[in-house]
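Internal tracking record. Fields below are filled automatically when a chain is submitted to the structure queue. Please do not edit lines marked as system-generated. If the sequence contains nonstandard residues, flag them in the REMARKS field before resubmitting.
Queue: standard
Priority: normal
Entity type: single polypeptide chain
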Amino acid sequence: MSNLTQTYVAVVDDDESICRSFGRLLRASGLQPVTYDSAESFLADTKHPQFGCLVLDIQLGEISGIELAQRLSDAGGHTPIIFITAHDDPKARSAADALGCSAYFRKTDSGKEVLETIRKVMGEAYGV
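SYSTEM-GENERATED OUTPUT FOLLOWS
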């Protein structure tokens, strides 16, 4: 059994159905999802586990996924980040790339593809 089964993945998205879908997909794959409906709720959760990967929606409420990633980077965070969006925008993609994101998906992309990428980036980052 892989160490990935003990790894937590944060999903930050203001669309409840996306959080629910990702949660089911990750649990079915042996991963431990923790979902947040906003960047603010993620930042307020001071007792969250160590995450192996963050899945961030680009367009959130007051703090965007890009801004959240920037704040985490500024604080010295090195957790791999995968961005997802319903509105693929060249400026957002460019900003995500500039932050060193591990991947960038549209919400219409295959969940299987996103899951494979989550496993890949966690394996690369943590030698799993």
